[in-house]
Amino acid sequence: RALGMKNKKNIKSNTLIERKIMSMMEENQMNGWVPQYYIESASTFADQAFPEYKLTIYEDGDYWHSLEEQRIRDKKVNEKLQLFGWTVLRLSEYTIKNSPQLCINTIKKYL
Predict the structure, then answer these.
(1) What is the sign of the dihedral through the CA atoms of 12, 22, 8 and 41?
(2) Is 26 helix (H, G, I), strand (E, B) or coil?
(3) Measured between alpha carbons, how far is 9 from 69 in angstroms, rounded to an integer?
(4) For the ranges 16-20, 63-67, 72-76, 90-94, which has the lowest average pLDDT?
């Protein structure tokens, strides 16, 4: 089950694909994740995180995250998080919609 918010106020509502993954994590009894988790050392929010495992999860919308400007930003965020020892999982909208169990299985590999 999800843990409560830490560090910062939730700054955005969850998207449809974020809610899909969160629902599936609950159905699969995956415990210890936090929605909209602020990682102070990297000055960024993860869509979800498993702080105990230093695992961040991002659900990336296909249109927005295909734009060059956003891909550059995503790469910088990934590098910053990795610098502080976090594992970054980016799940595409296409994969979430068409192979949701694959997404859950991928997350489980890191727990």
Answers:
(1) negative
(2) helix
(3) 26
(4) 63-67
Q: Are strands 87-92 and 55-60 parallel, antiparallel or unpaired?
A: parallel
pTM of the model: 0.86
**Residue reference for tokens 């299985």:** 105
Other C-beta atoms lying within 10 Å of the C-beta of residue 107: 22
The phi-psi region of residue 63 (left if phi > 0; otherwise alpha if psi is between -120 and 50; otherwise beta) is: alpha
Q: Tokens standing for 38?
A: 């602020």
Torsion of CA 107, 40, 4, 48, to 10 degrees: -20
**CA-only gyration radius of the chain, Å:** 13
